[in-house]
Write a structure and sequence with these properties.
Helix content is 30%, strand content 18%. The protein has 7 helices and 10 strands. It binds zinc ion. Zinc ion binds next to loops.
């Protein structure tokens, strides 16, 4: 598969018709019995979809996408996941697009140019405030998957947030994504040393960071196992969306088949 070589200094790849993708999400969610509610604020409508488990005690799984407007593969993957409706028995939450203004203009930040994924510690943006207000009304999640892309990367990779040292899902995620696109072979990705090819397990001390991403807020408030999935933007959009879909399915399968992973000693 050919690398496109388009992204020089930023993302210059394919775009999506966001309204069509979101309509696709809404239709599929309704067809398959999901409920929906808009995240505040009403001025930037964003839907959160929910499907309750049939059995009590089922794992609670949260998936979000579309935080960065120059990363269209996430919302496309969310639409596919809703349409194909192949989920484990679980309580499910899915937000297809957290930053619709950025997605419409194809820019990383929101309409004011703010990177929302640095705004979760002392939130200033209406989108972040609304998302957190909604999150505070939800229970804790057992697993959160955050769908992203990286225009600079040489292949797929994932960030693991796992302070409870649960069994890692990263090898399953990377193996699944690697069936459709390269895994980033770099020893250093995004300025951090890898722990295995395509897998970053950064030492996270949120209190030392002024600019929390969504993953840090979730770790501090709503869950202790999170994966940020980074598809490589220099490969075709359909390939990236497919890689994200496979990575999500692999993570959910590995997590639910093994039950809530036991904490490792140490
Ligand atoms: Zn991103």
């Amino acid at each position: 598969m050919e690398r496109l070589g388009r992204n020089r200094g930023g993302y210059f790849g394919e775009r999506i018709d966001l309204d069509a993708v979101l309509a696709d999400c809404a239709g599929a969610a309704a067809t398959h019995g999901w409920t929906s509610e808009p995240l505040p604020p009403a001025t930037t409508p964003r839907m959160a979809y929910r499907r309750a488990a049939r059995t009590p005690g089922a794992p609670r799984l949260y998936v979000s996408a579309g935080m960065h407007g120059d990363e269209p593969a996430g919302p496309l993957a969310a639409a596919r996941l809703l349409r194909e409706n192949d989920w484990p028995e679980a309580d499910l939450w899915l937000i297809p697009c957290l930053n619709p203004e950025g997605m419409r203009t194809g820019t990383r930040g929101n309409a004011q140019g703010v990177d929302l994924n640095r705004d979760y510690r002392n939130p200033q943006c209406a989108e972040t405030l609304g998302h957190i207000e909604w999150l505070r009304q939800q229970p804790r999640f057992d697993l959160t998957l955050l769908l992203h892309e990286d225009w600079e990367s040489h292949g797929f990779y994932t960030y693991e947030v796992n302070p409870g040292r649960a069994r890692s899902l990263a090898p399953d995620i990377i193996a699944a994504a690697g069936t459709v696109c390269p895994v980033d072979p770099s020893p250093v990705i995004d300025g951090r040393e890898i722990s295995e090819p395509g897998i970053l397990r950064p030492m996270i001390t949120p209190e030392e960071r002024p600019d929390w991403p969504e993953a840090f807020w979730l770790m501090a408030n709503r869950g202790r196992l999170s994966y940020t999935l980074e598809a490589p933007s220099d490969w075709p959009l359909a390939v990236r969306a497919e890689a994200l879909v496979r990575a999500v399915r692999a993570a959910l399968r590995a997590f639910t088949q093994n039950g809530t992973p036991p904490a490792m000693p140490g």
